[in-house]
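Thread: "does anyone have the structure for this chain?"

Original post by V.I.:
We have the sequence but no experimental structure in hand. Need at least a predicted one for the grant figures.
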Amino acid sequence: MKKIPEKEYKKIISKVPVPCVDALIHIGPKFLLFKRNEEPIKDQWFTSGGRVMFGETLEKAVLRRVKEETGIKIRIEKMIGVYQTMFKKNAFENRKYHTINVAFLARPASKKFKIKLDKTHRDFMITGKISKNFHWYLKSMIRDSGILKK
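Reply from O.Q.:
Generated one for you, tokens below.
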């Protein structure tokens, strides 16, 4: 996969929505969240995920993003849904960011796994509750996943 040069990517995201994937990783009835270092939603708890590269399937993209950001190899259980987000800021500049997100429910591929965060996140937690402070998209993903009903 060829990475888009930053200058070109800034032009693209100012004109069209960006296709993204997100993984709600669960461990039994609880889920794994990460504290973001970057915009959008800097300093908030969120899932692992990101943009889909040209020629990459949604499934391959979510497997790649989780591995890059957390060091965890996952198994996809199901697609949760398709969502749309519009953020006030993006990771490159103080400009609006429109994404079309495909969310997946996943679990670690192994019972023993080690979290190794990249620069995207600075902390992680395992929780079984939806906080009122979570971003609306994260709340929707968790509710729609059915994980809290298991």
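V.I.: this helps a lot. The beta strands are 18-27, 30-36, 45-46, 48-51, 74-87, 97-108, 121-127.
O.Q.: and The chain has a mean pLDDT of 92.
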